[in-house]
Design goal:
single chain, alpha+beta, Double-stranded beta-helix, 7-stranded mixed beta sheet, 25% helix, globular, binds N-oxalylglycine, binds manganese (II) ion
């Protein structure tokens, strides 16, 4: 089947023509979608009534291996009994809205900092699929920033400075910024990973900045210099011009490339409104032949 893409933003994001992803099994269509990801970084699909099992199966068809070690798995058991399904919600196991000081809520507030999924793992996260199950009537949007445009618009001296730089990422960092306390055992389980600060899309050869609130320091640089540089790069990379803001509808399904974009949740009154999405993320390893 032929798929078409309608741009939602000059740099990043496109809406895909009507399709039922649960029924897409042929490699040719999946390849068109992967090409769409290469072009747009974020794809929006409307009316995708996924169950958890269907979402897991789709992510595997689309890109192979799944990310099964989310940071949250070091803290508490997964509500769905499967660590490949990230619970992007403000409810507890009984479905009740979390109290303001609930640990799960405090932890998930970290999603409001600009980040990429699973940059604290090696291999890191590649594509995230996010399925909207319960969307409140108030805005509770997600923003995506284009890390390819961010790289392209750096001056030559900065590009040279980035050459060969590596960064340590751990999920504890983004949570500690917000005052979240980890036990010693949790920290032991969440040591993080080291990745280059510039990533290259293996198919398009396009470069992108690889940043996240999980980034703690630049390897072989003084900590303060590294942190300041990461903050300055993040400020550059998340300027309005590079950002698409997604306003959710029930049934929306959004896929983003974590090597080409950063994203963040935006504020809403989460003590009042139920919001529930499920995320399945693939890891950055070649797709099996
Ligand atoms: C995620 C995430 C943002 C949001 O699912 O990885 O960061 O708006 N979500 O819920
Ligand atoms: Mn995320």
């Amino acid at each position: 089947m032929t798929v078409t893409f309608r741009k939602l933003h000059p740099h990043v994001g496109a809406e895909v023509s009507a399709i039922d992803l649960r029924q897409v099994h042929d490699r040719a269509t999946l390849e068109q979608l992967r090409a769409g990801m290469d072009a747009h970084g974020v794809l929006v699909f409307r009316n995708q009534p996924f169950t958890d099992a269907e979402q897991l199966a789709f992510a595997e068809r689309f890109d192979g291996a799944l990310h099964v070690k989310p940071g949250a798995s070091a803290l508490a058991a997964n509500r769905f009994g499967n660590d490949a399904i990230a619970d992007i919600s403000n409810v507890d196991n009984s479905g009740a809205i979390l109290k303001a000081d609930d640990r799960k809520r405090m932890y998930s507030l970290g999603n409001r900092l600009w980040h990429t999924d699973a940059s604290f793992q090696d291999p890191a996260g590649r594509y995230s699929t996010l399925s909207a199950r319960v969307i409140p009537e108030v805005n509770a949007d997600t923003e995506f920033a284009d890390m390819r445009a961010a790289y392209d618009t750096l001056d030559d001296a900065t590009k040279q400075k980035l050459d060969g730089l590596k960064v340590h990422h751990t999920i504890t960092h983004s949570r500690e910024i917000l005052g979240f306390d980890f036990s010693r055992e949790e920290k032991e389980r969440l040591k993080g990973a080291i990745h280059p600060i510039v990533r290259v899309n293996p198919r398009t050869q396009r470069k992108s900045l690889y940043l996240a609130a999980h980034a703690t320091r630049i390897i072989d640089s003084p900590v303060a210099d590294g942190r300041l540089f990461l903050m300055e790069l993040t400020e550059h990379a998340t300027q309005r011009e590079f950002v698409y803001r997604h306003v959710w509808k029930n049934g929306d399904f959004v896929i983003w490339d974590n090597l080409a974009t950063m994203h963040r949740a935006t504020a809403f009154d989460d003590a009042k409104h139920h919001r529930e999405l499920r995320r399945v993320t693939t890891i950055d390893v070649p797709l099996p032949a």
